[in-house]
Specification:
Structural class: mainly beta
Number of strands: 43
Shape: globular
Number of helices: 4
């Protein structure tokens, strides 16, 4: 964007100089006014005054919310979900919708009008250069004269250097013709693990499915081949596998291509066949595999129920809070939707019985009942009580279930809580305190025991005894493995598991550093071994 005017307006209004499409942008969100005191030799401004219009989401300079401030070369101007931040508050990168970097460029100067040769000669004797300087000056003048008829160079931001065509370049119609060759995607390395939960899942005994950019990748580890679902037009951040059919659901951040009937950007949820990688089509489904667009900014979590009839999704509303939507996905229509009572939902999972699903969020734990939802969706949930253990409100990040169907929840305090019914309430009746240093990020029930993951970069295998209402003894760690050996240099203290999925003795793990690992649970904690394929397995973990 070239800032060549005295005032440049950014906003949603069609008359804005820089038009922005996101609904959170005001009609005239901000303006950049050139500071008349700072211009370069080409007559272009080098310093601007940023003035915010006072919209709800605000404007951020180098991460800090501002109203009026000077802007110089290299400064970062951001617009995003900032309505909850005060003046001077810092915006997280994950909340940014638009980011502009101001760069001061030099406009190519036109060749100056040259004086006639006799004028130059007549004045040559006036200028005197000592020690041969006159010869140097004459040589520079001759060089400028020779370049006067050249094709002018161009600047391609963010590079500030001039780019010139080759010396004997002749324009041709072939310049604008697409080449015969094209790029074909063959393999994707790494997954989107840094800001997603449950982004890697087993599909069958040899294939795993994971998220990477705008693709969903189906990886066959036996054949070491990949196939791709490519119909999303923006980053895919949520994944669910149907319990009975070869189907997957994938959800993306707000799409600028697929919009609501009112023209607003919205999140896209697609149901598709894993074998054919095509969207599920049904005569009763007019949306052709795309669910109605309830969520506005991002899909945070979703899962099919145990029967496969319903798909539960969580995503942002326009005001930044989270909404739950339960779809009867075969019809392509929502059954009900209501506020999730939270800003961020980290995970949703159904109990083994199928009638209950649990929501883990920054506000704690909610238990939803399908039977109650059929009567009154707004009163279909019960909030789990846990303050008797944590003493203060805290986030819930992960949930798993005992064999009897009671919830086990990983908390932001590092505790693991066991919940059970107490009359009409659901309360924490047992706990593993300080199970991890930092948050408990993942839980997965395995045949060998309960596996937990935390900010400390450890996977721990727990043995516990539960009678359906209480813990019979204090759970103990029987094995553990560290993920830190799999982090790249400089990130060993910033790696933890963000996704766990178990099948037949093996865990597939996604990490915050975007690695995918396979862990043989029965070998957790053992010394380093080398597999038949030659790969190194440390403590039962192996990089995929």
């Amino acid at each position: 964007i070239a800032l060549l005017k005295a005032t440049t307006i950014f906003g949603r209004d069609p008359t804005s100089d820089v038009r922005l499409q996101w609904d959170g942008v005001s009609r005239q969100h901000l303006r950049l006014e050139a500071d008349a005191r700072f211009y370069n030799g080409s007559g272009l401004p080098t310093k601007f005054i940023l003035i915010d219009s006072g919209g709800a989401n605000g404007t951020f300079l180098n991460g800090e919310r501002v109203t009026k401030v000077s802007v110089r070369d290299g400064d970062r101007i951001a617009i995003g979900r900032g309505r909850h931040l005060p003046q001077g508050g810092q915006m997280a990168d994950s909340n940014i919708e638009y980011l502009f970097v101001l760069r001061t460029l030099t406009k190519p100067a036109l060749a100056p009008a040259h004086k006639p040769a006799q004028d130059r000669a007549g004045s040559a004797g006036v200028r005197r250069q000592p020690l041969g300087g006159q010869e140097v000056a004459d040589g520079q003048r001759r060089h400028r004269d020779a370049r006067a008829g050249d094709v002018p160079g161009e600047v391609f931001p963010p590079c500030t250097s001039m780019v010139y065509p080759p010396s004997r370049y002749a324009p041709s119609a072939a310049d604008n013709r697409m080449p015969d060759a094209e790029l074909v995607l063959e393999f994707v390395y790494g997954c989107r693990g840094w800001d997603t939960a449950r982004a890697v899942k087993w599909f069958d005994h040899s294939r795993i499915i994971f998220l990477a950019g705008a693709f969903v990748v189906i990886y066959d580890k036996d054949e070491h081949t990949q196939r791709f679902f490519t119909e999303h037009d923006d980053d895919v951040v949520a994944l669910a596998i149907h319990p009975r059919l070869p189907l997957a659901a994938s959800g993306s951040i707000a799409s600028r291509e697929r919009r609501t009937p009112e023209g607003r950007p919205s999140c896209t949820i697609m149901i598709w066949n894993v074998e054919t990688r095509e969207r599920t089509l049904s005569p009763e489904w007019p949306s052709r595999g795309v669910l109605s667009r309830i969520h506005q900014q991002r899909i945070e979590a979703m899962e099919f129920d145990r029967t496969g009839q319903f798909l539960v999704t969580y995503g942002d509303k326009e005001d930044g809070t989270t909404m739950i939507c339960v779809y009867d996905w075969k019809s392509g229509k929502p059954w009900f939707h209501l506020s999730a009572g939270a800003s961020v939902v980290h995970m949703v999972k159904h109990a083994p019985g199928g009638n209950i699903f649990v929501q883990c969020s920054d506000r704690g734990v909610r238990f939803y009942d399908y039977a109650r939802a059929k009567i009154a969706p707004d009163s279909s949930f019960t909030t789990g009580g846990y303050l008797s253990v944590t003493k203060k409100p805290t986030a819930a990040l992960a949930v798993e279930f005992t064999e009897q169907g009671q919830a086990i929840v990983g908390m932001g305090t590092g505790h693991i809580l066991f919940f059970a019914n107490k009359g009409t309430e659901i309360k924490a009746v047992g706990s593993i305190k300080a199970a991890h240093a930092g948050r408990v990020t993942c839980l997965e029930q395995c045949a060998e025991g309960l596996v937990s993951a935390g900010d400390d970069g450890l996977l721990k295998l727990w043995r516990y005894e539960w009678d359906g209402t209480a813990l019979l003894s204090q759970p103990i760690v029987i094995a553990q493995v560290s993920l830190r050996p799999y982090a790249v240099q400089g990130y060993h203290d910033r790696v933890w598991a963000t996704s766990l999925d178990y099948l037949d003795g093996r865990l597939v793990v996604a990490t915050s550093t975007n690695h995918i690992l396979m862990v043989v649970v029965s070998e957790m904690g053992r010394s380093t071994r080398r597999s038949a394929a030659g790969s190194s397995r440390r403590g039962g973990a192996e990089s995929i």
